[in-house]
Amino acid sequence: MNEDKYYYNGEPLQLSYNNNYCMADKIEIVRKIEDDFKNGMLSWTQMYWIIDNAKFGSYTCQRIIDKLLFEGKIKLNPITLDKRTFNTIPKPFDL
Hints:
By secondary structure, the chain is mainly α. It has three helices and two strands. Helices cover about 40% and strands about 5% of the residues.
């Protein structure tokens, strides 16, 4: 297996807009990405590969990075190498 790719069931992730994952697989992939990040098993190069190639789970990776930026745990976005976020900071009156 190549280190910078992220695998699900022994195969690289499929595209986010053109895949044949069922709903249970999609939920499992999202949970697996979150759990791997919490346990330190998801590297920045794997996250970059997922986001850059628009693979399924790219939104989850973007959400993880934004959360770390908003909490102040990292100062720069590791994908863009600046302070830009993928989403805006939630305001008190946002629905």
